[in-house]
Write a structure and sequence with these properties.
Elements: H1 3-38, H2 55-75, H3 79-99, E1 102-103, E2 106-107, H4 108-129, H5 132-152, E3 159-160, E4 171-172
Antiparallel strand pairs: 1-2, 3-4
Helix pairs in contact: 2-3, 3-4, 4-5
């Protein structure tokens, strides 16, 4: 067999091999472009259940703002919003008690209920009857109940006050000692 004849037979094999290689490169490139379009691969995020905010975190993030909005709604005689915030505040306390069932060997849900039950009832009645004076008294009682809980848990430095119109917070922060 001549060299020319052998080269002619190898040519279809070389063309087929080149075609297969080109097809494989095309498939790989297409797969890579789809992967890039979908975004870089990232590890799955850890479950949120692994993180439990502290009681303090929850008080500052949920209770304090609702406590203050409840007061502002009452001061503005916005009874519908006051009722809404009272429900939110009650629910937030319940969720904190579920998240932290025991603190300092004390049943936290029971402690919360024991200090907030009466003020919540009084606030609900005041809101329903649209009685600003009763609302003010019940709100002061709730605020006092919060502070009694703080003292019982040795957090007396955290004193909640009835906000003033000019305040941006209902937390009293100064250097005067409290007993």
């Amino acid at each position: 067999m001549s060299r020319e004849a052998a080269g002619t037979r190898r040519r279809p094999i070389a063309v087929a091999a080149t075609g297969i290689a080109a097809a494989a490169i095309l498939v790989i490139a297409l797969a890579a472009s789809r992967s890039m379009a979908a975004g870089p691969e990232t590890a799955p995020l850890p479950q949120a259940a692994g993180y439990l905010p502290s009681i303090s975190d929850l008080m500052l993030a949920t209770i304090q703002p609702r406590h203050e909005r409840l007061w502002r709604a009452g001061q503005d005689s916005n009874w519908e919003f006051a009722a809404y915030e009272l429900g939110n505040l009650h629910g937030a306390f319940a969720r904190i008690g579920q998240a932290h069932p025991v603190t300092q060997s004390i049943s936290f849900p029971e402690m919360i209920a024991s200090v907030t039950e009466q003020p919540f009832k009084e606030l609900g009645s005041a809101i329903q009857s649209k009685d600003a004076a009763a609302f003010t008294r019940a709100y002061a009682d709730l605020t006092g109940a919060c502070n009694s809980c703080h003292r019982a848990l040795n957090h007396g430095a955290v004193e909640i006050v009835v906000p003033s119109r000019t305040s941006v917070s209902d937390m009293k922060i100064d250097s005067a000692p409290r007993n």
